[in-house]
Amino acid sequence: MELFLLSNGKLSGESELLGYAKAQIQAMLLRKKIRSAVLIPYAVIRSTYDARAEELESSLGIKVTSVHHFADPAEAIAQAECILVSGGNTWVLNQQLHELGLVVPVQRAVRERDVPYIGWSAGCNVATPSIRTTNDMPVRSSAVLPALGLFPVQINPHYIDAHVSGHMGETRDERLAEFCAINPSESVIALREGSMLHVSGNHLEYYSSRGEGYKIFRHQQETREYYDAQALAELVPFHCA
């Protein structure tokens, strides 16, 4: 299995989509001799699906076609060399995956055919068991449906622990602590901007373009900062480096 789970698509001041992870992604594309990818763009709301595909073509140097152009989206996923899942609104994305019958085709492509899955922000969220740890608003009336479950632990992308002056609502840490209190058997991996988890075969690595760590939230346990994947060894069925 090949998963790139990125917290976000671009860093501040960066013009290229997936630029901070470009070297790792292109190395994988070269190793697997991948020349094209199918984009699942349904999280995109304030741009167009084709504009997002064009951005990815420019950044990654491969042919990228949005799945909405295919008469049979499920068959497009079944034939894909690589699957790209865009950021945007997680609720809309997950609902569309279910309504268009793409959940099982994506799962089979990744698990059975070893098709690489590259997802950022919302695309990272839906790779986990559920979207309950998304930061997004349910902008349409959406049920909390299961997500793809390719990665076994909940992730919170765009994690930030800054305290904004004048903000009287709950901090991100408090929100994630609430999740763990309601779901005491589950953990949440909090990924800062410019960071990602990379699963290749049976190996899991953590990467941060800024040299920053990630956090693991558990019920009634101290939340700490970690800088490699070793801390995840008890949570995931991968060799963690």
SS element count, helices: 7
Provide the succession of SSEs: EHEHEHEHHEHEHEEEEEE
| Number of domains as seen in the coordinates | 1
CATH topology, by name, is Rossmann fold
Question: Beta-strand level of the residues, as a percent range?
Answer: 15-25%
Radius of gyration: 17 Å
Query: What is the name of the CATH architecture?
Result: 3-Layer(aba) Sandwich
**Major sheet description:** 8 strands, mixed
Task: Summarize this entry quickly.
By secondary structure, the chain is an alpha/beta fold. 27% of the residues lie in helices and 22% in strands.
Q: How would you characterize the overall build of this protein?
A:
The chain is an alpha/beta fold. It has a single domain (2-155, 191-211, 236-240), classed as 3-Layer(aba) Sandwich (Rossmann fold). It is 27% helix and 22% strand. The two termini are 16 Å apart.
Q: What are the defining features of this structure?
A:
241 residues, 8-stranded mixed sheet, alpha/beta, 4-stranded mixed sheet, serine protease, protease, Rossmann fold, 22% strand
Topology (elements, then pairings):
Elements: E1 2-6, H1 22-31, E2 36-40, H2 49-60, E3 63-66, H3 73-79, E4 83-85, H4 90-99, H5 103-112, E5 117-120, H6 122-125, E6 154-159, H7 172-182, E7 188-192, E8 195-200, E9 203-208, E10 214-217, E11 225-226, E12 239-240
Parallel strand pairs: 1-5, 2-3, 2-4, 4-5, 6-7, 9-12
Antiparallel strand pairs: 1-8, 7-10, 8-9, 10-11
GO molecular function: serine-type peptidase activity
Family: Belongs to the peptidase S51 family.
Protein name: Dipeptidase E
